[in-house]
Design a protein that fits this description.
Blueprint lengths: L1 E3 L1 H13 L5 E5 L12 E4 L7 E5 L2 E5 L1 H7 L2 E8 L2 E8 L17
Parallel strand pairs: 1-6, 2-5
Antiparallel strand pairs: 2-3, 4-5, 6-7
Length: 108
């Protein structure tokens, strides 16, 4: 389903707490493909009815069931290297058309 490494959980919880943002995070595929097409991102948001939602106390992660059916299992990690740091979101099915795009209609 949705997983998160201990390092990612620690960093995400610390970041959100420091900004006084509720510890509820949604995984989304942003509309538009101007950046890196098919890149999942994290946004603060409350779980909605019908979402896939996992409690990693005190952090809750959620995503729409439709997105989950597209991308499959999701794993969130945190990279902390000299010139490469931040959250990394891997999914079971990272692309559908062989060209790194999820086949959304944003670019059509």
């Amino acid at each position: 389903m949705i997983g998160i490494t201990p390092l990612a959980k620690e960093n995400l919880t610390s970041f959100l707490s420091g900004k006084k943002i509720p510890l509820k995070v949604r995984i989304i595929l942003p509309s538009g493909c101007d950046g890196d097409p098919g890149q999942l991102i994290l946004v603060p948001d409350q779980p909605a009815p019908g979402d896939i939602s996992v409690d990693f106390s005190p952090l809750t992660l959620c995503m729409s069931r439709d997105l989950y059916e597209q991308v499959g299992q999701v794993q969130i990690d945190y990279r902390d290297e000299e010139h490469d740091f931040g959250f990394v979101i891997d999914c079971e099915r990272p692309s559908f058309d062989g060209e790194g795009c999820f086949g959304c209609t944003a670019c059509v």
